[in-house]
Amino acid sequence: MKMEMYCATQNNVLFCDYYKPTPRYPLSSYSQSSYMSSASSYSQSSFSPISSPYTPPSQTSESYTNGNDTVFKFPSVIQDQYIPTRQDLISAAIARAKSLIEIEEIGQRLISVDKRHVIQNNGQKTLLPTIKQEPKRGSELYIALPKACLEGFLYAIFSQFGTIHQIRLMMHFSGSNRGYGYVMMGSPMEAETALAKLNELSLPGIRGHLLVSMSTDNRTLFARNIPMDLSEEQLQIEFEKRVEGVKKVRVFNNTDDPTKNREFCFVIFKDHRSAALARRSMAESPFFINGVSIKIQWAESEPVFRHSVLMRMKQLHIRNMNAQTTEEDIWKILCQHVTPNNIVFIKKNNTCARIKFIRHEYADIVRKSLDGKRVHGINWIVMWDKIEGTKYECEGYFKRLSI
């Protein structure tokens, strides 16, 4: 059944009020007078839980006897009933809100119903996650918002598009926010949907917009002036002695002598917070390895592509290769993971190579299998080709402008 609805919050539970039921089929299958009496007895101001919405009276089944068997004759008209989802209820409640305060109240009640916890520490208010495992990279969004908005507003607005893993809101000691925050959705697809729907959204009651973009989510630090004779494993042990959250260390080998590095490395952490704390710790007090002072700074952040763009990418970029490695050597290694007819081309230039596959799935298999693989004495660094990803991002951008 097709019904109009609106939502309200009452006793910390979302309720749905159904009114003006409009059947998709004629009323000839049941008594129109009984239908009108039932509809008139239903009050628009009364709220009913989602578990028991208003349903018009249905036709009772008839039966007749055919020999020794009883045959049931079911009604010829079956009423379709619309069951709204949680996202539908939240969207309808927000649509009725006339100010940011009302949306904030809706969000606070949702936080209470979902039993989520909010803490504030060092000028940052955080909605704690319910599970320890973080979503995939590309699930976090950067939000520029009015200073009157708090975590309840963000929770209500973004709950329309999926599960919220975590909210981080930068706060002043006066109680207002600093104008920006971060929302981590449950998956990259949910983050992309929220980005498309909420960016430049007009807010009720004020002159302003909500600006949403993908978070850089930088998890990599750049370390220079490191000893040339240390390997990735040795450097990782040294960094783990000083800071926490180190995932791996990437070293670029010298082209003339592959046994030595180029006196710099990239330290990759499990999340952005661990990288930020490590940078602050090593900046406040000197960090030495084998008596040499190490200089630490943020590395240039890798682009975080939208999920729809990532699923189109078929090209890989391999760095830190031995100059003696040939395209034929690369082809033989690739054939250990995919069949030869799935490889489109291999182009090698000195210590780098670009490889294209016929499908995204084959490229992803090779990326996961060969990243960090030691070939001819050097560990390969395999990543998605930024040139291809930027091309698809620009195509999507101009397509949105044309719409």
TrEMBL record:
Q: Can the keyword GTP-binding be found in this entry's annotation?
A: no
SUPFAM superfamilies found in the cross-reference section: RNA-binding domain, RBD
Q: Which UniProt keywords apply?
A: RNA-binding
Q: Which residues form the RRM domain?
A: 145-233, 219-301
Q: Which InterPro entries does the record cross-reference, listed alphabetically?
A: Nucleotide-bd_a/b_plait_sf (IPR012677), RBD_domain_sf (IPR035979), RRM_dom (IPR000504)
**Domain of life here?**
Eukaryota
Instruction: Kindly give the Pfam families that the UniProt entry links to this protein.
Output: RRM_1
Task: List the CDD domains hit by this protein, alphabetically.
Answer: RRM_SF (cd00590)
State whether keyword Amino-acid biosynthesis applies: no
Q: Which Gene Ontology molecular function entries are recorded, alphabetically?
A: RNA binding
Identify this protein by name: RRM domain-containing protein
Source organism of the structure = Aphis glycines
